[in-house]
Amino acid sequence: MKQWTTACKDWQKRIVAGRPLIVAPPLFQDESDAALAVFKSLRIVDAAGSPTFGEACEPWVFDFVASIFGAYDPESGKRLIREFFLLISKKNAKSTIAAGIMLTALIRNWRMSAELLIIAPTIEVAQNSFKPAADMVRADEELADLLHVQDHYRTITHRTTGAVLKVVAADNDTVSGKKAAFVLIDELWVFGAKPKADAMIREATGGLVSRPEGFVISLSTQSDAPPAGVFKAKLDYFRDVRDGKIEDMKSLGVLYEFPKAMLESEAYLDPNNFYITNPNLGRSVSREWLEDELKKELAKDASTRNTFLAKHLNVEIGQSHRNNRWAGTDFWSRRAEPDLSLDSLLDQSEVVVVGIDGGGLDDLFGFAAVGRHKETRDWLVWTHAWCHEGVLERRKSIAPMLLDFKRADELTIVDDELADISAIIEIIDTINRRGLLASVAVDPAGLGEMIEALAEIDITQEGGQLIGAPQGWAMMNAIKTAERKLANGTMRHAGSKLMAWCVGNLKIEPTATGVRATKQNAGDAKIDPVMALFDAVTVMSRNPEATGPSVYERRGILVV
């Protein structure tokens, strides 16, 4: 029984040193050699001089191709590594390499009438893979006799086996019922913004169940927005496989991205480091062009700069890439305590302030509990959000991301107009019955139903437990207090990915009298849970005491 690993635990050292990111050699060398012989002979017609892959490519390309085809066991007819993921910067010949790999698979395939698919998110992207493949066939007389190209159908048919390589712009109709043995998905990041992409990809790859020789390859650059949906799921999974957190010998990822330390220090802005995510630097990628473009982007707005960083340097876009971001953003990820739950916050706290914000049918309903630690007096933060299912339709661009947050149990999607209010009231009542609640701080606008529901559990303005938190410029003290406590480490949070996204969406605008918090982009960028946090900070900064039932009442003892 062969033993191998698809992990590359020392990838950070390897990628900086320019060493291979694939640790294990091909499992079946003869298969690898035979496939490489085909692949290396294919011509890149649109490159200067129309060189072959063998003449034009860097070793990393051959390592990747060798691993794919060298994983096939000719005796059993099974491919031992079946899923591959390549994350690489734009213009590193990704689509051309995809064409070469799938053409090699078409030529090497033995199954009669086999289906091979290249799935692209748009017709334009589909053409980026089909045209190089068609050109490779026409540039070689032997291949032109063996393979039949039909441009109007974007198909290439093997005249002997009847196998067909088809390049499709993906939707459920184009991939439904396919029985493809070999599937390549190009620009996976685009599928991340499509709510039904996961189902579509499952449909397209379902044929591998009965075709053990097959493979699935996903290719992508980074997304120009925070990763979401099927792209985020694949990215996270293959990172864990690479890092050895998940042992999956049937999956292999090659991810050209900057090590964490280089991201934190913004070392990716140094042209001397461009090679890290551009292994084709000096071939299909011009360092001089990258330098010139980076200079232009640094003088522009952060939104366009993000696109450059994501596409050409493979930098994952997140909280730290906004030039008008909240100052607390730079410290947010450092203060995460993933084990902090609402229950553990309540156990550790001597007093709790709840903040509430949002709640419209087009918004998130943000909830934040801020507890003051019994011993250290540090602030502990736990957040959650609710939204109505209609938001998934009205805000389709963020629907995959919201579904990710739901799966992480950080967001609850409701179909009952009052279900979110009921859930929030239940949490507040629990905190109050434990004698920990100081108050509930709210944005007074549009919270009529919530205020009525709070009154039913005796949380009222007259009783002193319901407080209208100042908004706009008047919230400046809470904003500044939160960022200072994040900076000095006296405020820690549960590490919610939803909250990290909302923090990244926050924009700080100067006003005549101070600053105010608003959204980076109207509509789709949600910040309600962060605003709920600021509401709670408004009260917690006043050093409140709990005003809920006494310890004797909680034990059922009547004091006269």
UniProtKB/TrEMBL annotation:
It holds the Pfam family TerL_ATPase. Residues 63-193 form the Terminase large subunit-like ATPase domain. Residues 257-539 form the Terminase large subunit-like endonuclease domain. GO terms for molecular function: endonuclease activity. It comes from the Bacteria. PANTHER family: PROTEIN YMFN (PTHR41287:SF1), PTHR41287. This is Terminase large subunit.
